[in-house]
Amino acid sequence: MSASATMPYFIKPSVNLSAAEKEAAYALAHQQIVATIGDETDETIKMVTINCLLKTHLPYYYWVGFYLNRGDETLTVGPYQGTLGCLYIKFGRGVCGTVALSQVPKIVGDCHALAQGTEHIACDPNSRSEIVLPVMRKDGSLLGVFDVDSSEVASFDGVDLRWLERILTVFSL
Ligand code: SME
After folding, report:
1. pLDDT surpassing 80 at residue 15
2. How confident is the model at residue 147 (pLDDT cuts 50, 70, 90)?
């Protein structure tokens, strides 16, 4: 099935936020994530909670979700909210595969400026900017990567990076 540029009825175009608006939205989302997860240990429950609450509070989250490391140098799609995501991404390919390999977060201001198929994998042509972070467990193993896409350019910056790094510690504490 090829990606369509038409947004389904349940997806809205992204709306960028100012730095101050982001701080307020992330603070609320973070508070609700911590309260909901509590002392939960199940990784899937943590992932679906993070996806849902971040997408609820951040209006530029067009696609949000996890790609999982199963130890075969390929990321496998995990829990997400948004339009249909790619099922498998090889380590080193696209933004997610690059982050899985380097374990260093990446912010892309304009996905369409990247070489398609190598530097960026377009699961949905509506994705215009993105942030991807590695997700580590307490034992130092790589759970996978966390990927957020916006349908606007330049949606992500250091504010997103700082809050997401903090939120993703729920997998390593
Ligand atoms: N943005 C990713 C592909 C995954 S989808 O956007 C859901 C990438 O290029 O790695």
Report:
1. yes
2. very high
Alpha carbon distance 102, 98 (integer Å): 6
Q: With a 6 A CB cut-off, is 127 part of the ligand 1 pocket? A: yes
- For ligand 1, the distance from its centroid to the CA atom of residue 97, given in whole angstroms, is 9
pLDDT in tens, 24-74: 999 999 999 999 999 999 999 999 999 999 999 999 999 999 999 999 999
Whole-angstrom distance, CA of residue 71 vs CA of residue 82: 26
Query: Quick one: pLDDT band at residue 4, thresholds 50, 70, 90?
Result: low
- The pTM (predicted TM-score) of the whole model is 0.96
Q: Is 85 in the pocket of ligand 1 (CB under 6 A)?
A: yes
> Among 3.30.450.40, 3.40.50.2300, 3.40.50.300, 1.20.1250.20, what is the CATH number of 19-171?
3.30.450.40
Q: Are 151 and 62 in contact (CB under 8 A)?
A: yes
**67 alpha carbon – ligand 1 mean position (Å):** 9
For the chain, what are the domain ranges? 19-171
